[in-house]
């Protein structure tokens, strides 16, 4: 999971590439590098964050350099070192390559090249590519043909950019990793994602799988695997790159947590009719599933999928949520009656994309629920519902989870029928979240338990996925041990872990049987001396057993699941802040996981 | 002069507007349907200001989340004033973020492009230039005495009529002004901008005053939000009377101009909204309810058959079915002082709710999250979070 950039233009390659890399930092940040072409190739790369590379580049005179490629890396093969950073070159330094993805047959290729006398400088899978291209050049092939022939040898997933010394061309190819071309005036851009070059142009071409592109200053020529030139559509990006600013917050995560009320308004706007009490999703028109519904997702999105599956089931629809990387292993029966819903913030999550592609092949209908317009999921699924959360920069998903919850609630309502009660409930959610933001005591609770041995989260029904999400957020940004459980499972094992040093966050909302039973579980942990933090709407007696209270407004079950999660987001944030963690970029994690 | 970047002071709570300001600063209270501060930024844009520095403090997340990193393509830098120790202190907090000369305005009072333009045009060689208006009463505000275009005196709440014009809170400041603000002795722990300018005058520097006929509107007390809404609707430049395309208004409902119905609002059958009513985002007006001359903030629900006249609500208020706010004038207690005969039916702060069939006597103030039980008649001031049965 990396980000790549490329540029051919009129002479400020270095500036464009570093701007581009900083726009892609959310994709990974354990090393970064650029290759600049100016007759010969000059490569600069460093382990560490982009700032390290920028220090290295301070004294580089790059005036008039017209072509270059760059990379920000998140390790999949080999530790983050200067040598393992991209770009990679051949021995003569004639070819430079950057790559996002995994080359599955790299071991075999490396063996073959080593046997032919090629010396490798890094542990990466990528390094085979420049050597393959160089060997093709030595055999007399022109650069473009040498590039195509080398790509033809690769198995796996890739977005690749390469440049050859002495040319003012960037060659690119894509398979199952995102790659987008930007068309400027006298300059052409390439990147894993649009933020890399949105400052320079908003006209883009999304490269499809198995397509190649040849970029020069005048534009891009896109061709298929057989070399036939294509005429791909040019899209215009309409969102505001300024959204990437922190707006006075210390971290993007806190900014994004505080943006949730307006993100939720955007998610609902025009999709519910408060007079009729109905839901209208044009995106789903005519989609009347007759068979089971399978939701596939990873990480936080999986928790939103669990929530949606529960909503479907309560309305009598057979629905299940699957971890995308396990979906394949389960070998579930899928046919034309099945609706497969892929929930992915980025729309590029490799595991989710694989599941959706398999579902497409099996003839199922597919629906993408995603935040990114023009993403792979949006382009490859039969239908797409955008969650409209706006750009999310913090690696830990916050507002996109809340928007996924509401967007999926809309999907459930559209497919199973809505009511005045449901629409009124949905309309109350933004204010409920604003109330939590205005009144939360999460920072005090975080201070009280910052030194805990572990954090446990329990809930039932719609609050069960929230318990899982609360624990995931805590793990991601505090690096502390945290687990979420179905409250009823506590006494079937996890209770053995509960001590006076392990606060238990109990999600208790509503006044029904589920809430009352969770109160029973709270008594169990209280009896073991564990501190209890109740996330409560005050409708049960749980407040009496709690050491700390995090209030949510009285609201319906869906809103309660959104609002309770916001309290847990804030607790994780404040614990991580006290611990001085790298909140927006936790170690070992990247925003969009584009490798399986 | 060419419009420079602007410093907008938006950190103060506005304690005389409590309980509306519990979770947000005065600049984020609604002028019609948009925050006061948004009107200020709109006018700064119209005056050609290329970028903003917002000094934020009380309830700052509300400001930052509302405006984000830019407003109408002009970048915003936020400066956090941790303790609100006066306008001069706020400005010094922003000193590193701006270069002199800069335009300085209050984020909690509406000024229009004309005042801004007059002050910018009038700034010519002085260490500071400030805008004054002759058409508003300065007795509750700052006053400036002007002779031959020079400011000769600055006072707070001037008593005598005629001698002082109202300081509109619009300044162009050069470096020397920042130095004077820093030098001025704080009074009662407050570092005010006007004390700094007085210091500047005492030091023999030239401070010019520009008299403008432009629009200047302030809400000092909660009922002023009703007058501000009227002024803003009458002005029409930044808020237009009308129904947002994303609002849902039943065909049998009546909208009487002027009235603003924002996105996501629902107005039920037979309801009457206006004249002079402003509904924020996602407000519901139930069947046959009447909302007249009122400012109703976002996410508020007005029950069926309820009547609101001259009412100001915060966000997320729940007015039950058949409840009645009969309208002003009424006597309102703010702090230790009772204001008689003000146009205020009732003030219902954020998330106040009633159970229906409640009658609010004129001038009633209900604190945030307070609960009024069904069938009660209430008057006077109900504290935040209280439960009332009566």
The CATH class of the largest domain in chain B turns out to be Alpha Beta
Oligomer: heterodimer
Helical run tally of chain B: 7
Q: Total strand count of chain A, please? A: 26
Span between N and C termini of chain A? 10 Å
Mean pLDDT of chain B: 91
Number of structurally distinct domains of chain A: 3
Taking pLDDT < 50 over at least 5 consecutive residues as the criterion, the unreliable ranges of chain B are: none
Can you give the helix content of chain B as a percent range?
Answer: 10-25%
Largest interface: A-B, 31 and 34 residues
CATH architectural group of the largest domain in chain A = 4-Layer Sandwich
Profile the largest sheet of chain A. Answer: 8 strands, antiparallel
Topology, number of strands of chain B? 39
Radius of gyration over C-alpha positions of chain B, nearest whole angstrom:
22 Å
Taking the sheet with the most strands of chain B, its summary is: 10 strands, mixed
Task: Could you tell me the CATH topology label of the largest domain in chain B.
Answer: Spore Coat Polysaccharide Biosynthesis Protein SpsA, Chain A
| Global shape of chain B | elongated
Overall description:
The complex is a heterodimer of chains A (596) and B (390). Chain A is an alpha/beta fold. Chain A folds into three domains: 3-238, Aminohydrolase, N-terminal nucleophile (Ntn) domain (Glutamine Phosphoribosylpyrophosphate, subunit 1, domain 1, 4-Layer Sandwich); 245-432, Rossmann fold, CATH 3.40.50; 440-596, Glucose-6-phosphate isomerase like protein, domain 1 (Rossmann fold), CATH 3.40.50.10490. Chain A is 35% helix and 22% strand. In chain A, the strands form five sheets. In chain A, strands 3-2-4-1-10-9-11-14 form an eight-stranded antiparallel sheet, covered by helices on one side. In chain A, a hairpin with a 5-residue loop joins strand 7 and strand 8 (170-175). Chain B is of the alpha/beta class and 390 residues long. Chain B is 17% helix and 34% strand. In chain B, the strands form eight sheets. In chain B, strands 1, 4, 5, 6, 7, 9, 10, 11, 12 and 13 form a ten-stranded mixed sheet that branches. An eight-stranded parallel sheet of chain B has the order 15-18-21-24-27-32-35-38. In chain B, 60% of the residues are buried. Chains A and B meet through helix 7 and helix 13 of A and helix 2 and strand 6 of B.
């Amino acid at each position: 999971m990396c980000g790549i950039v490329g540029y051919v233009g009129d002479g400020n390659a270095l500036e464009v590439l570093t701007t581009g890399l900083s726009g892609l930092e959310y994709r990974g940040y354990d090393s970064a590098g650029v290759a600049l072409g100016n007759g010969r190739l000059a490569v600069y790369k460093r382990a560490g964050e982009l700032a390290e590379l920028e220090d290295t580049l301070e004294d580089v005179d790059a005036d008039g350099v017209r072509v270059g490629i760059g990379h920000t890396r998140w390790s999949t093969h080999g530790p983050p070192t200067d040598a393992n950073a991209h770009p990679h070159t051949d021995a003569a330094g004639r070819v430079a390559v950057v790559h996002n993805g995994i080359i599955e047959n790299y071991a075999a290729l490396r063996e073959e090249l080593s046997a032919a006398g090629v010396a490798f400088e890094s542990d990466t899978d990528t390094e085979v590519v420049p050597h393959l291209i160089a060997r093709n050049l030595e055999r007399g092939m022109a650069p473009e043909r040498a590039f195509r022939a080398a790509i033809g040898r690769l198995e796996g997933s890739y977005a690749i950019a390469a440049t050859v010394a002495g040319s003012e061309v960037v060659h690119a190819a894509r398979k199952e990793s995102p790659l987008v071309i930007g068309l400027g005036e006298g300059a052409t851009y390439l990147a894993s994602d649009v933020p890399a070059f949105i400052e320079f142009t908003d006209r883009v071409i999304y490269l499809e799988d198995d397509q190649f592109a040849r970029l020069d200053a005048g534009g891009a020529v896109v061709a298929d695997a057989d070399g036939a030139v294509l005429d791909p559509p040019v899209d215009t990006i309409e969102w505001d790159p300024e959204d990437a600013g922190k707006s006075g917050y210390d971290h993007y995560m806190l900014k994004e947590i505080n943006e949730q009320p307006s993100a939720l308004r955007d998610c609902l706007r025009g999709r519910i009719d408060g007079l009729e009490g109905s839901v209208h999703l044009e995106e789903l028109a005519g989609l009347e599933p007759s068979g089971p519904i399978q939701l596939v997702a990873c990480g936080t999105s999986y928790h939103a999928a669990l929530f949606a599956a529960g909503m479907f089931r309560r309305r009598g629809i057979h629905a299940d949520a699957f971890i995308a990387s396990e979906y394949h292993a389960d070998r579930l029966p899928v046919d034309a009656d099945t609706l497969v819903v892929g929930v992915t913030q980025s729309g590029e999550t490799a595991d989710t994309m694989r599941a959706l592609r398999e579902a497409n092949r099996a003839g199922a209908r597919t629906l993408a629920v995603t935040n990114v317009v023009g993403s792979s999921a949006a382009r490859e699924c039969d239908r797409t519902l955008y969650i409209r959360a706006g750009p999310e920069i913090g690696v830990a998903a916050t507002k996109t989870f809340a928007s996924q919850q509401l967007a999926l609630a809309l999907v459930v309502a559209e497919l199973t029928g809505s009511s005045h009660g449901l629409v009124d409930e949905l309309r109350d959610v933004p204010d409920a979240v604003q109330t939590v933001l205005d009144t939360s005591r999460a920072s005090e609770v975080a201070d009280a338990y910052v030194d805990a041995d572990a954090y446990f989260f329990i809930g039932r029904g719609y609050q069960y996925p929230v318990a899982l999400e609360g624990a995931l957020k805590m793990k991601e940004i505090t690096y502390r041990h945290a687990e979420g459980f179905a409250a009823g499972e506590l006494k079937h094992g996890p209770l053995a872990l509960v001590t006076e040093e392990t606060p238990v966050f109990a999600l208790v909302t509503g006044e029904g049987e589920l809430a009352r039973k969770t109160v029973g579980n709270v008594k169990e942990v209280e009896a073991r001396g564990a501190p209890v933090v109740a996330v409560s709407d005050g409708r049960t007696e749980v407040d009496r057993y709690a050491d700390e209270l995090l209030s949510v407004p009285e609201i319906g079950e869906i809103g309660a699941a959104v609002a309770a999660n916001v309290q847990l987001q804030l607790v994780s944030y404040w614990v991580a802040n006290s611990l001085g963690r790298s909140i927006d970029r936790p170690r070992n994690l990247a925003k969009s996981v584009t490798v399986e | 002069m060419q419009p420079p970047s602007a410093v907008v002071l938006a950190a103060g709570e506005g304690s005389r507007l409590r309980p509306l300001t519990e979770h947000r600063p005065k600049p984020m209270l609604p002028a019609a349907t948009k925050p006061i501060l948004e009107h200020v930024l709109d006018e700064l844009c119209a005056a050609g200001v290329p970028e903003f520095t917002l000094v934020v403090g009380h309830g700052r997340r509300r400001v930052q989340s509302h405006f984000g990193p830019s407003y109408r393509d002009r970048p915003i830098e936020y400066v956090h004033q941790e303790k609100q120790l006066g306008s001069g202190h706020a400005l010094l907090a922003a000193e590193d973020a701006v270069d002199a000369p800069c335009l300085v305005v209050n984020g909690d009072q509406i000024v229009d492009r004309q005042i801004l333009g007059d002050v910018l045009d009038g700034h010519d060689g002085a260490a500071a230039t400030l805008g004054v208006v002759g058409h508003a009463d300065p007795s509750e505000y700052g006053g400036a005495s002007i002779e031959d275009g020079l400011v000769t005196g600055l006072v707070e709440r001037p008593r005598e009529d005629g001698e002082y014009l109202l300081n509109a809170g619009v300044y162009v400041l050069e470096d020397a002004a920042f130095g004077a603000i820093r030098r001025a002795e704080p009074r009662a722990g407050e570092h005010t901008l006007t004390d700094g300018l007085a210091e500047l005058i005492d030091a023999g520097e030239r401070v010019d005053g520009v008299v403008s006929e432009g629009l200047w509107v302030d809400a000092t007390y909660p009922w002023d939000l009703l007058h501000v809404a009227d002024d803003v609707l009458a002005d029409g430049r930044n808020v237009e009377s009308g129904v947002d395309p994303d609002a849902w208004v039943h065909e049998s409902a009546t909208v009487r101009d002027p009235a603003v119905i924002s996105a996501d609002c629902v107005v039920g059958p037979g309801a009457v909204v206006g004249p002079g009513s402003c509904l924020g985002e996602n407000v519901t007006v139930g069947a046959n309810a009447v909302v007249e001359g009122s400012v109703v903030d976002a996410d508020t629900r007005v029950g069926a058959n309820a009547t609101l006249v001259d009412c100001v609500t915060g966000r997320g208020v729940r007015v039950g079915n058949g409840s009645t706010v009969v309208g002003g004038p009424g006597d309102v207690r703010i702090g230790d002082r009772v204001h008689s005969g003000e146009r205020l039916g009732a003030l219902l702060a954020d998330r106040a709710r009633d159970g229906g069939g409640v009658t609010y006597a004129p001038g009633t103030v209900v604190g945030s999250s307070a609960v009024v039980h069904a069938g009660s008649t209430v008057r006077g001031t109900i504290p935040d979070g209280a439960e009332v049965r009566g």
